[in-house]
Amino acid sequence: MALLIPLAPRFVPPLDAEFTPACLWNRAYRAKVRESGGGRKVAVALQRGDGSVSVFETATLSAAGANAALTERYIERLVKFLLWQKGGYRVTVAGAPELARHLSAVYSPEGARAFDHMFMGERIYGHPFAVESCAYEAAPAEKETAAPLGRHLEGCRIGFDLGASDRKCAAVVDGEVIFSDEAPWNPSAQADPRYHFEGVNDSLRRAAAHLPRVDAIGGSAVGVYVGNEVRVGSLYRSVPREQFDTRIRRLFFELREAWGGVPFDVVNDGEVTALAGSMALEDSAVLGVAMGSSLAAGFVTPQGTITTWLNELAFVPVDYREDAPADEWSGDRGVGVQYFSQQAVGRLLGAAGIDLPGDMPLPVKLEQVQKLMAAGDRRAHQIYETIGVYFGYAIAHYADFYDFRNLMALGRVMTGEGGDWILKLAGQILRTEFPELAEPVRFHIPGEKEKRHGQAIAAASLPAIRR
C-alpha cells in the first residue's frame, strides 16, 4: 500500500501489480510540500569515520496531525537511502527536532532499523551510532573527499573478483589479460575463516602460474572495505563474530604477506564495476550496477574520482509499499536486493507459474529461467519485464541522489536476452515518465569479453607499483 499517497504509475510490473516506485512516492510527497507553501527546510548530515560529511537538503511538511505518518515515512526512507549510499555513524537532522527523535527511536538497538544501527556503528565505522538534532542554521558543513581509483596498467598483475557463487581471477600484463579462470565456491555458508583464505589464495596461485612475476594484486568483493580491511560482507556472514574480528577483518593483509608484501588493494565490487565502465567508455560520471547474487554498485564522479561513500544499493529502498518483500538479512522491506538480483528472480518464479525445486540453488534457478527465456517462454519473459519496470523507476530514483550520465549494467541477471529486455523497458519508462533523464543517461551493457576482461583489468589496475 502506498502510505496515504495515491499513485498512478504508467507502467506496472506484470508479476507485481502492487509495486510502489520510491521515486514517484517521493515526488508526490514533495508536490504536497510545494502545495502547502513550501514546507520547512530540513538538512540531513552524515558523518563518516574519515571525518568526511555528506549533507542532503530537503523540505518537509509538519510532522504533526494528518501529516505525521507521511513525513515520518518520507524522512525514514530518505535516511535509509543516504546511510547505504553515503554511509555514516552520526546522522544530524537540522531543522526538525521531532523527526530526529523519531529517527533515533527507529534506528536504535530496539527499533525497526536495529540492523542499520549495528552495521553503521560498530561494524563499519567503529563508533557508536547516533541520531542528533540541531537548528537548520547550525547544520554541519559538507566535507566530501574524493580520490583517483586504479587505472595503473604497467607490469605483471593479478586481478580477482569474489562473488557469492564463484571466484574470478586473471593474469594481466601491461593491461592485457593473458589468462582468466573462474572457480565455484560457497563462502556465505562457511564458518571457517581458512576456507576464505585458501579459496582466494588458490585463485591467486592459478593466475600467478601464467606470469613471470607478480608486481601487484588488486581485487573486488561483495561487502564494505575500508583501507583493505573487511568491515561488512555477506560472503562472511557465517563466520562467528570473534573469528571475523581476528581472522576475516585482516584477511587481505594476511594474503598480502603470503605474497611477499606486493602492493595489494581490495575494494567493493561495485566500485570496480564503475571503474571498468569508466575505462571502457573513456568517460566519467558512471553509475555501475551488478545484478548477481546480490546488488552491487559503484560510482565514478563527473570528475573521474571515487568517494568514500558506501554505494551499497542492495539495502536502499526502491519500493515504498508497507508490505513489500523483506530482505532476509536486514529484515527491511522494499530494498534493492529483492528487485535486482538472483533473489529477485527466485522470488518471482511462483508468480510467473514456474515450478522449480525449493532446494535448487538460486544460480541454477536463474540458469533455468534464462533457458526458458531463450526458448521463448512467456513466463520467463514476464520475470524480465517485471525487473525491467522495477529498474526503470529505480534509475529515476538513483538520479535524485547521484550525478551520472553513464549507467553500466552487468551481472548474471543481465546476461542474455533477458538483460536486453530489462534495459529496453527501463529506457521506455525513462522516455515516458522521466523525459528529462532519457537524453542525458546512456546505458551500457558490456559484451562477454569486456565483462570477463574489463572487470579483471580494472581490479588488477587498483594498486600503484612502488618504484
Numbering strands along the chain, what is their spatial order in the largest sheet? 8-7-6-9-12
Major pleated sheet: 5 strands, mixed
Residue-averaged pLDDT: 93
Number of E-type strands: 17
Proportion of residues in helical segments: 25-40%
* Shape designation: globular
Sequence stretches where pLDDT stays below 50 over 5 or more residues: none
Distance between the termini: 60 Å
Give the helix tally: 14
List keywords for this structure.
globular; five-stranded mixed sheet; single chain; 14 helices; four-stranded mixed sheet
How would you portray this structure in words?
The protein has 467 residues and is α/β, with parallel strands linked by helices. Helices cover 38% and strands 20% of the residues. The chain is built from 14 helices and 17 strands. Strand 1 (40-47) and strand 2 (53-60) form a beta hairpin. Helix 8 (269-281) packs across helix 14 and helix 9 (342-352) crosses helix 10. It is globular and about 70 Å long. The model has no long low-confidence stretch (mean pLDDT 93).
